[in-house]
């Protein structure tokens, strides 16, 4: 896995207003020649396409860099396949097709599987031709935005997870330090101090591979190392086995 991009800046000069636009300094005498390069939406922000929707308290869209940053108390992004939530911020880098959730970020699939981490980084590919350059989103406060995130819809290809990774399948919970998930295959790989828990039973090792379709997690180790664990028998004998 690769490290996520640094957080995009959301600082805005001056006092906030319900809707703020900023222009590049140009020829003051050339009326109408100014260019809008950043949009802000403040209060009950709702961003949507034909397939995806996002909610937050504030959104900042950098039109030159095609970067959208949302912040607020109840950050939420829904797609036909899953739901992404985050505590600190959600970011979308349109040109790179990268979306980032920071702070207890969680992806929940339609069949209730979950991946959680301090930072989740999603890589996607457009499913329709992207809009032409120079026609980015128009954000509005109070529940509207015209070209947010992914005009035409994107397909999620990979998710990287960093810090306190937590994966829930139908039968098991897997924790570790870093991970990667590929939705097409349903396979997730978790590395670094990995624990697999099923009811009272637990095994631990350096890495694990999880099939999110079947719910089966397999612990893997480097040659020469051993997987250890605790198994509680179901016949009433509570003695530990390793």
Can you tell me about this structure?
The strands form 2 sheets. The chain has a 6-stranded antiparallel barrel. 0% of the residues lie in helices and 55% in strands. It starts with 18 loop residues before the first strand and ends in a 12-residue tail after the last strand. Strand 13 (173-182) and strand 14 (187-198) form a beta hairpin. The model is unreliable at 9-21, 135-151 and 237-242 (pLDDT under 50). The chain is elongated. The chain is an all-beta fold and 242 residues long. It folds into 2 domains: 36-163, Sandwich (lipopolysaccharide transport protein A fold); 169-242, Sandwich (lipopolysaccharide transport protein A fold). It is built from no helices and 17 strands.
Strand arrangement, major sheet: 3-4-7-8-6-5
Per CATH, the superfamily of the largest domain is Lipopolysaccharide (LPS) transport protein A like domain
Number of helices: 0
Q: Report the portion of residues in β strands.
A: over 45%
Number of strands: 17
Q: Quickly name the level 1 CATH class of the largest domain.
A: Mainly Beta
Radius of gyration (CA) equals 22 Å
CATH topology heading of the largest domain: lipopolysaccharide transport protein A fold
Write the layout of secondary structure elements.
Blueprint: E1 19-23, E2 36-48, E3 53-62, E4 67-71, E5 75-78, E6 82-86, E7 89-93, E8 98-109, E9 114-126, E10 139-140, E11 144-145, E12 154-168, E13 173-182, E14 187-198, E15 201-211, E16 216-220, E17 228-230
């Amino acid at each position: 896995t690769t490290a996520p991009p640094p957080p995009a800046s959301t600082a805005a000069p001056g006092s906030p207003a319900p809707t703020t636009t900023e222009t590049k300094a140009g020829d003051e005498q050339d009326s109408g020649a100014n260019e809008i390069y950043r949009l802000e939406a403040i209060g009950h922000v709702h961003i949507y396409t034909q397939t995806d929707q996002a909610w937050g308290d504030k959104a900042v869209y950098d039109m030159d860099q095609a970067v959208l940053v949302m912040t607020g108390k109840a950050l939420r992004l829904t797609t036909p396949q899953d739901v992404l939530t985050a505590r600190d911020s959600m970011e979308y880098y349109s040109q790179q097709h990268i979306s980032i959730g920071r702070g207890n970020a969680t992806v929940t699939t339609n069949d209730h599987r979950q991946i959680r981490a301090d930072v989740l980084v999603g890589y996607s590919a457009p499913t329709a031709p992207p809009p032409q350059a120079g026609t980015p989103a128009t954000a509005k406060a109070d529940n509207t935005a015209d070209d947010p995130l992914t005009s035409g819809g994107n397909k999620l290809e990979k998710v990287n997870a960093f810090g306190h990774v937590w994966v829930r399948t139908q039968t098991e919970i897997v924790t570790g330090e870093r991970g990667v998930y590929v939705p097409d295959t349903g396979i997730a790989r978790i590395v670094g101090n990995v624990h697999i828990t099923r009811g009272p039973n637990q095994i631990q090792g350096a890495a694990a591979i999880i099939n999110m379709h079947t719910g089966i997690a397999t612990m893997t180790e480097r040659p020469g190392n051993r997987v250890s664990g605790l198994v509680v028998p179901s016949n009433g004998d509570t003695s530990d086995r390793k």
